[in-house]
Specification:
Blueprint lengths: L1 H35 L4 E2 L13 E3 L7 E6 L4 H19 L5 E6 L9 H12 L4 H10 L1 H4 L8 H10 L4 H9 L4 H13 L7 E4 L2 E4 L4 H17 L20
Parallel strand pairs: 3-4
Antiparallel strand pairs: 1-6, 2-4, 3-5, 5-6
Length: about 250
Amino acid sequence: MKQARGKQSRRGFYLTLLLVGVAGVAGILWATQRSKTAAVVTVPTPAANLAAAPGYVKGSPTAPVEIVEYADFECPGCGQFATVTEPDVMKRLVETGQARYRVYLFPVNASHRNSPAASLAAACADDQGKFWEMHDRIFAGQNDWNSFATDDPKSIFAGYAKEIGADAATWEQCYDGRKHVDRIAAHAKAAETAQIRSTPSFVIGDKMVAGAQPFDVIKAMVDSARATAAAAPVTPANAGDTARRTPVAAP
């Protein structure tokens, strides 16, 4: 009897392992298929009014391509991208000069009640040159300050400000004074102008894709945009002035 029970127990254990393995393979196949079928669409107009809402930029101003992300700090997909994929994008594409990265903070979901506060916390850190450090810390701690965790995330953000080396008093004065609410509103307007419907969304060159994309999708879009830029004809800076110049007669 004990031997029979032992066999049944082992059979159940192996069956569990098999189910877990099947689920794992299915997950890998789903992720692979997802990356192959990312819904990349062409956008005919500029992604945003950079003069009104310049966003937060990282990388060389002379990079041939710009990656534009529209992100919501409380969006789980944005958190996944920021903590899993974005470090790879920064290291392999931005730091190598292949692309520049620009992010717009867009609290698109009304249920993400603490996202505007997170945007303000990051904007105040930017005053001290600490935007990207705060950006990374806020996303890493998403489960600690989101709307499910607290109704008042200020103390958590203040702790992050200290962690990243920002002056606490200066940061708090900015946060309490809601100094950058107009900037946050401008980001939202830029996203609406670009017809962004969800976060994260990415615009690279004249292509847009929504969702937390894997590195390979971002890399392919960057490569495509670089090829397009390289193939574009270069117009001399003074070409447009030639026809308007009045010839001067020789003495």
